[in-house]
Design a protein that fits this description.
36 helices; 885 residues; binds magnesium ion; Glucose Oxidase, domain 1; Dna Ligase, domain 1; binds adenosine-5'-diphosphate; alpha/beta; eight-stranded parallel barrel; D-amino Acid Aminotransferase, Chain A, domain 1; 33 strands
C-alpha cells in the first residue's frame, strides 16, 4: 500500500486510492482531481491518513518506507518545477498542509515557504530578482514554523513586527522594505534562540520532517479534539499531509491570493462570491490583517467599496478563474469553495472542496441545482443536512419591530440572536451553562474560541471578512454571526464595548441580525419562519421518496398544531403525566396518590377524568383522522409527592385529612430508585383504577371528536414499561373492557389499538411472546438505553463527556442510538414481534426518533414510523427520505 501519492506535473493519478478522501484527505484528493482535469495545480504529494494514524499510535516515529517514499516524491516536485529543495542558488520552497477526510477549518496548521534558510533566501532573492519578496517570505516562514512546529508563542513575533512598523511609522506590512524584513528576520531568529535555547533549524530536511510531524501531532491538539467532538468526527481518522511547491501571491502588484465560492454561501444565490488581496500570501485574506477586496465588480458596487475588484484589477486572471469555477461546478456538481493564488499574472489553484453553506443556502442550492439539471431530485434531498434545517425553523427578526441599530457589519451567518454581551469564550461557556443567552463579542475569533462560539446565541466580531474564521465556523454551527463590524471597539480591561459613541458593558443585551449584518441594542421581537418556498419544495420531494411515516412527540394542542404545520402524520408519543403536573390538577393527583383506599383514589380520579378527557379532545381535534399513541401513566408516583409544607397544608384542606397523616403516607411512598420502582404498567396493575380513568378519557374524547368532526383519530393506547406478556395481557383486557363500555354508552365505535412500549431488555428479548397481546410496539429508546447500558440519563453528564473524548462511546447514546448494542435489541424485538404477528406496527418514540443517524437505522430495521419533537419533524422527514434513498 502506498504511503505517498504525487500530484501535478507528470504524476499518475489513476490509483483510485488517491481520490479516496479516507486515504488522502479532502484536500489531497481534490488537489489530485484538479490536476487530473487539467487545472493549474502546483505539483506536490500527499502522505496518507494511514501514516498519521500509525505515527500517532507508534510513539511518533516515521517508518523507513515513509522516509524513502517522501524522498522520491520530493524529487517529483523538483523535476516538475525545475528547482531543488535546499539548493542555495535556486531553491524549491514548499508548503506543508494538513487535510483530514472532512474539512476542519482552522484546526490544522499550515506552514508556508518551507525550505528557506540563511543561504537559500539569497538564492530566492537572486532568481526572483526581488529581494524584498525573498526576505518577506523568510520572515513569514520563521514566524509560522516557529509557532506551529516549534511552539514559540506567535504573539512574540507579532509584537516584534508591530514594533518594527511603529519605528518606521508604517501602517501596512506592504510598506516594509527589504532591509526592514532582513532586520526582522534577525530578530525572529533571536526570539527562537531565546525561547528554545537553540537556533532556528537551517537544515531543510529537518524543517520538512518537523513540519510533517507537526501536522500529524495537530490531529491530537486540544482545539482539534473540541471540533471533532462538536462535529462527531471519529478520533481514529487521522489527517493526511500535503507537501506542495509554493506559488507566490506576494511577488508584487501582479500577484495576489484569494478565496472564493462558486455561489453565495450565505444566501445560495448563483453568483460568484469571494475575497482577495494583492501582493499577499495564503492566510492574509482570512486572518483579517488587511481588509480584503471583493472578487466581482457587482459585489464591490453593492458594498460601495473603494478598492477595485479582481474583475477590474486583474481581468485576465479573473477570466481564467471564472472559467475554473464553471469547470469545477460541472465536475463536482456542487458549489465549490476555492483557494487560489496569482503569481505574476498566472493563476494557480490551491484547493477546492464542496463549500460550507448556511442552511438557507444549502436548501436554495439543492433546489436550484435540481432545477438547472445539475443534480437529480434525489441528490437534492441528499444535499441538505437534516440537522441544518433546524436553523430555518427558528424565528427571525420581525421586520416591523423597532430596531435600535448601533452599527452594521458583514452578514456572515444568517438568523437572529439576542443575548447578553460576553467578551471571551470561557465567560460565554460559563454563562450559557448557567442558562443565560449570550452574544460573544470578539475582535476576531480563533480556533481557541470555538467552545464559546458554540455556547453563544450569536457572534459579533470587529474584524474579518465573510471568509474569516468567525464567519466560516459560525455558518457551520448555524450560529448567527456579524463579522467585521469595524465601529466596535472592545476594552478587555474595563470589560466594556464602544460602538460609535455608545458605550456598552458585559451583561448588556444585544441583538444581531446575521442576515443583514445589523447590530442592535436590546432585544428585538421575532417572527415565525417561512415554511413555503424552497423549504416546501424540498419537503415535498422528501415526502415523495420516504417510506417511513413521521409522527411527533407532543402532549399539548399547541405542540400538536405546530407539529402538524411541520408535517407530522400523527402522534408517536403523548405523555399523559405532563397533564398531571399541571398546577390546577396536581392537588387532585396528590389526593389520589395519598388516598388510603381504592375508593379514595376513585374519588380523586373522578375529578381528573373530565380534565383528561378535555385534554385528549383538543389533541384529537388537531389530529383528527391520524394515529395517536397515548401512553398511560408512566412515572413513579414518587414524582408527584408534595415537598413543601404549604403543599401538605393545602392538601389537608382539600382532603380533610390531617397533615401528619399525609406526611406519613408520603413517607411510605418514598422510593430509593424510582426509575426502577413503582412506575409504568406496575401502577396499572396495582392501581387499575388509574388506567381505567385514562382509558375512559381517551375513548370518550375520541368518540366525541368522531361524532362532532366526522374524522376519528385512531388512538393507540400504549402501556409503558412492560417486561412480561402477562402484564400486558391483564392491562389489555382492562383497556378493551373500558373501550366496550364507552362504545356502548356513546352508541358509536372507533378503531383503536392496544400495544406496548419496548423499553426493557426483557421486553425486547420476549417480544415474540408479548406480541401475542400487542398490536403495536413503540421502541422507547430513552429508557431502553438507560436499562441496557445501566446508565442513568440524568446522572450521566459527569462521565459522558470524557467517555466520548476517550472513544468509549462514539456519541452520546442518549442523543444518537447505540446501534451496536441497544440497536441489537431493537432489531431482535422487531424480528420476534413480526414472527408472532406479521402486521404488528413498529415505531420509535425515544429522543432518537429525531436523530438522523438513528433514523437511518430505523429504516434499516424496517420500522413503520419514527416520532420526534415538533421542531424535529422536518428533520425526521428529510432524514427518513435520505435513509430510503
Ligand atoms: P487551511 O486548511 O487552513 O485552509 P491550507 O493548507 O489550505 O490551510 O493553507 C492555508 C493557505 O495557505 C491557503 O489559503 C493557501 O492559499 C496557502 N497555501 C497553501 N499551500 C500553498 C502553496 N503551495 N503555495 C501558495 N500558497 C499556499
Ligand atoms: Mg489554517
Ligand atoms: Mg485551505
Amino acid at each position: 500500500m502506498k504511503t505517498v501519492y504525487t500530484f501535478g506535473g507528470s504524476a499518475d493519478h489513476t490509483d483510485p486510492r488517491q481520490k479516496d478522501k479516507t486515504v488522502t484527505g479532502g484536500k489531497g484528493a481534490n488537489l489530485a482531481e484538479m490536476a487530473q482535469i487539467g487545472l493549474p495545480v502546483p505539483p506536490g504529494f500527499t502522505i496518507t491518513t494511514e501514516e498519521c494514524v500509525s505515527y500517532l499510535a507508534g510513539g511518533s516515529d516515521f517508518s523507513e518506507m515513509l522516509r524513502t517514499d517522501v524522498a522520491s516524491a520530493v524529487k517529483h516536485i523538483e523535476a516538475t518545477v525545475g528547482k531543488s529543495f535546499g539548493n542555495n542558488d535556486d531553491p524549491l520552497l514548499v508548503s506543508v498542509r494538513s487535510g483530514a477526510r472532512v474539512s476542519m477549518p482552522g484546526m490544522m496548521d499550515t506552514v508556508l515557504n518551507l525550505g528557506l534558510n540563511d543561504k537559500t533566501v539569497k538564492g530566492l532573492a537572486q532568481t526572483s530578482g526581488d529581494e524584498r519578496f525573498a526576505w518577506d517570505s523568510y520572515r513569514r516562514f520563521i514566524q509560522m514554523y516557529g509557532d506551529v512546529v516549534l511552539g514559540v508563542d506567535h504573539g512574540l513575533f507579532e509584537e516584534a513586527l508591530e514594533i518594527a512598523k511603529e519605528d518606521k511609522g508604517f501602517y501596512n506590512d506592504t510598506e516594509m522594505e527589504s532591509e526592514d524584513w532582513q532586520t526582522l528576520v534577525a530578530e525572529y531568529k533571536a526570539i527562537v534562540q531565546d525561547e528554545l535555547g537553540h537556533p532556528f533549524p537551517q537544515d531543510v530536511q529537518e524543517q520538512l520532517w518537523g513540519a510533517i510531524a507537526a501536522v500529524f501531532d495537530s490531529w491530537d491538539a486540544d482545539r482539534a479534539k473540541v471540533y471533532r467532538r462538536l462535529n462527531d468526527i471519529p478520533s481514529g481518522w487521522g489527517t493526511a499531509v500535503n507537501v506542495q511547491a509554493m506559488v507566490f501571491g506576494n511577488m508584487g502588484d501582479t500577484s495576489a491570493t484569494g478565496v472564493a465560492f462558486t455561489r453565495d454561501p450565505a444566501t445560495g444565490e448563483k453568483a460568484y462570491y469571494g475575497e482577495w488581496l494583492v501582493n499577499a500570501q495564503g492566510e492574509d485574506v482570512v486572518a483579517g490583517i488587511r481588509t480584503p477586496q471583493y472578487l466581482t465588480l457587482a459585489a464591490r458596487d453593492r458594498a460601495g467599496a473603494k478598492q477595485p475588484s479582481m474583475e477590474e484589477a486583474m481581468p485576465a486572471a479573473y477570466g481564467e478563474l471564472a472559467g475554473v469555477f464553471e469547470i469545477l461546478e460541472q465536475h463536482y456538481r456542487d458549489m465549490q469553495d476555492i483557494e487560489f493564488t496569482v503569481q505574476d499574472g498566472k493563476l494557480w489553484m490551491l484547493q477546492t472542496r464542496s463549500g460550507k453553506r448556511t442552511a438557507k443556502a444549502a436548501l436554495k442550492m439543492a433546489v436550484d441545482m435540481a432545477g438547472e439539471g445539475l443534480i437529480t431530485e434525489k441528490e437534492a434531498i441528499l444535499r441538505v443536512d437534516p440537522m441544518a434545517l433546524d436553523q430555518l425553523l427558528h424565528p427571525t427578526l420581525d421586520p416591523k419591530a423597532n430596531r435600535d441599530v448601533l452599527t452594521s457589519g458583514l452578514p456572515a451567518s444568517p438568523g437572529a440572536a439576542s443575548g447578553t454581551i460576553v467578551l471571551d469564550a470561557d465567560s460565554a461557556e460559563q454563562a450559557a451553562n448557567a442558562g443565560e443567552k449570550v452574544i460573544l463579542v470578539r475582535v476576531e475569533t480563533s480556533p481557541e474560541d470555538i467552545h464559546g462560539m458554540h455556547a453563544a446565541q450569536g457572534i459579533l466580531t470587529a474584524r474579518g471578512g465573510m471568509t474569516s474564521h468567525a464567519a466560516v465556523v459560525a455558518r457551520g454551527m448555524g450560529r448567527p454571526c456579524v463579522s467585521g463590524a469595524s465601529a466596535v471597539s472592545i476594552d478587555l480591561k474595563t470589560r466594556t464595548l464602544r460602538i460609535g459613541n455608545r458605550e456598552l458593558k458585559e451583561g448588556d443585551t444585544l441583538t444581531l441580525d446575521g442576515s443583514n449584518g445589523q447590530v442592535m441594542a436590546g432585544t428585538v421581537a421575532t417572527i415565525e419562519p417561512e415554511m413555503a418556498g424552497d423549504f416546501g419544495v424540498l419537503m415535498e420531494w422528501a415526502d415523495k421518496y420516504r417510506r417511513m411515516r413521521v409522527r411527533t412527540n407532543a402532549e399539548t394542542p399547541n405542540d400538536c398544531k405546530m407539529a402538524r404545520q411541520f408535517g407530522a402524520e400523527g402522534i408517536g408519543l403523548c405523555r399523559t403525566e405532563h397533564m398531571f403536573f399541571d398546577a390546577s390538577r396536581i392537588s387532585a393527583v396528590r389526593e389520589m396518590i395519598l388516598a388510603d383506599s381504592e375508593q379514595g383514589r376513585r374519588d380523586a380520579l373522578a375529578k381528573l377524568l373530565p380534565e383528561q378527557r378535555a385534554d385528549f379532545r383538543q389533541i384529537f381535534e388537531v389530529m383528527a383522522g391520524l394515529p395517536c399513541t397515548i401512553r398511560l401513566l408512566d412515572p413513579p408516583l414518587h414524582e408527584f409527592l408534595p415537598h413543601a409544607d404549604a403543599d401538605f397544608d393545602d392538601l389537608a384542606v382539600t382532603t380533610g385529612l390531617d397533615v401528619d397523616h399525609l406526611k406519613r403516607r408520603a413517607g411510605e411512598l418514598h422510593e430509593f430508585n424510582p426509575m426502577l420502582g413503582h412506575r409504568g404498567c406496575r401502577l396499572g396493575i396495582t392501581y387499575p383504577e388509574i388506567y381505567e380513568m385514562q382509558a375512559r378519557a381517551i375513548f370518550e374524547a375520541a368518540c366525541e371528536v368522531a361524532l362532532t368532526s366526522g374524522a376519528a383519530p385512531v388512538p393507540e393506547v400504549m402501556v409503558p414499561l412492560v417486561a412480561t406478556r402477562r402484564e400486558l395481557q391483564i392491562l389489555r383486557e382492562l383497556i378493551d373492557r373500558i373501550a366496550q363500555e364507552v362504545f356502548a354508552e356513546q352508541e358509536t365505535e372507533i378503531e383503536y389499538l392496544v400495544g406496548t412500549m419496548i423499553e426493557l431488555p426483557r421486553a425486547a428479548l420476549m417480544a415474540g411472546e408479548i406480541a401475542h397481546e400487542a398490536l403495536f410496539f413503540s421502541f422507547g429508546t430513552n429508557d431502553l438505553t438507560q436499562t441496557t447500558l445501566g446508565v442513568s440519563r440524568d446522572d450521566s453528564a459527569r462521565f459522558l463527556g470524557p467517555y466520548v473524548d476517550q472513544g468509549i462511546f462514539e456519541r452520546d447514546p442518549f442523543v444518537s442510538l447505540d446501534i451496536e448494542g441497544v440497536g441489537q435489541l431493537v432489531e431482535l424485538a422487531a424480528e420476534r414481534g413480526r414472527k408472532t404477528r406479521d402486521d404488528i406496527k413498529l415505531g420509535i418514540c425515544g429522543e432518537h426518533g429525531g436523530d438522523p443517524a438513528s433514523i437511518a437505522f430505523c429504516e434499516k430495521v424496517g420500522l413503520d414510523y419514527v416520532s420526534a419533537s415538533p421542531y424535529r419533524v422536518p428533520i425526521a422527514r428529510l432524514a427518513a427520505a435520505q435513509a430510503s434513498l
